[in-house]
Design brief:
Blueprint (H helix, E strand, L loop, with lengths): L2 E3 L11 H4 L10 E2 L7 E10 L4 H14 L10 H5 L13 E11 L7 E2 L1 H8 L7 E7 L4 E2 L7 E5 L8 E6 L6 H4 L22 H19 L6 E2 L30 E2 L6 E2 L1 E2 L5 E2 L4 E3 L4 E3 L3
Parallel strand pairs: 3-4, 3-6, 5-7, 6-9
Antiparallel strand pairs: 1-8, 2-10, 8-9, 11-12, 13-14, 15-16
Length: 296
């Protein structure tokens, strides 16, 4: 079974900050279920399904490079966010270095513009299979089963041989930005706060970054559905999905938390990346402190 990402699990009533602060939230505890996790050199492969501009692809590829960059961008950095995954261990060293691998452009929509789940796995199978996560990224005009109820998923093929981990994230710019591109778009449900300005100037792609980060962390720490998660294995809360809606300190339903703001563009972000990029990354559960950790 693959991980199902439901981005918007917010309350459907408006809660005043002073009241919400008094509500006792159940503790987050991701248990380790004795399965394999991905570590070492992990290749991230991409199949771009539909039309993505070179600029859009560059934003996403730069994000992967940012997670394992040897350069030193100003803090807080995307690489420091990713280092939290090294605390998820199955015994022995668990640090991982992400490498961008194969990239395939499928601009002719080889399976049409409406995809089933099985077709996502078939597309991902065209990419590498050894210690990799194969991402299928679908363009804004591509429908996928369950899209908007989920913004991305990860899973693995069955069996012991030729098994590989795959993932999918869709560009929600025109289909459901209020669910899958929040906080860069007005939410469909819950408190109606003003949207933040997307750091890369593209609501759909900056939303993809949030969901890609969520799915990638889950794929590495729970690749075969027996790693780190809370709740049902059929619909688990994972490293980032356990912290849904939190981007900075002081977050509450409808408020992403205190984040940084670019004084020139007004864009909101909480992480620096390579090539001068800025990203807004979701909180990740820290197994050493058992809290949802934010960069700011």
């Amino acid at each position: 079974m693959g991980f199902t990402l439901i981005l918007f699990l917010f309350l459907t009533i408006i809660v005043e900050p002073s009241i919400s602060a008094l509500v006792k939230q159940p503790p987050v505890l991701l248990n380790y279920h004795n399965g394999a996790i991905l570590k070492g050199n992990i290749t991230v492969n991409f199949l771009w399904y539909g039309h993505f501009t070179p600029s859009q692809r560059s934003i996403i590829v730069d994000f992967i490079h940012s997670l394992s960059s040897s350069s030193t961008p100003p803090p807080p950095s995307a690489a420091s966010w990713w280092r939290t995954t090294s605390k998820y261990t199955s015994g022995g060293a668990s640090s991982s270095l992400l490498l961008v691998g194969n990239q395939i452009l499928d601009q002719n929509y080889s399976f049409g513009k409406s995809l089933k789940n099985a077709q996502l796995a078939a597309l991902a199978s065209k990419l590498g299979r050894v210690n990799s996560v194969n991402f299928v990224l679908t363009a804004a005009d591509v429908a996928v089963d369950g899209f908007c109820m989920r913004c991305g998923t990860h899973g693995s093929t069955p069996g012991r041989t030729n098994r590989f981990v795959y993932a999918w994230v869709g560009n929600s710019e025109t289909q459901c930005p209020g669910q899958c591109a929040w906080p860069f778009h007005q939410p469909v449900y819950g408190p109606q706060t003003r949207p933040l300005v997307a750091p890369n100037g593209d609501v759909g792609i900056d939303g993809v970054i949030i969901n890609l980060a969520t799915v990638l962390a889950g794929a590495v720490t729970n690749p075969f559905n027996n790693g780190y998660f809370q709740g049902s294995a059929a619909a688990p809360l994972e490293a980032v999905s356990a912290c849904t809606g939190v981007f900075g300190s002081g977050a509450y339903p409808g408020y992403a938390g205190r984040v940084l703001v670019d004084q020139t563009t007004g864009a909101s972000y909480n992480a620096h990346g390579v090539n001068g990029r800025k990203y807004l990354l979701p909180a990740m559960w820290d197994p050493q402190t058992s809290i949802c950790s934010t960069l700011v």
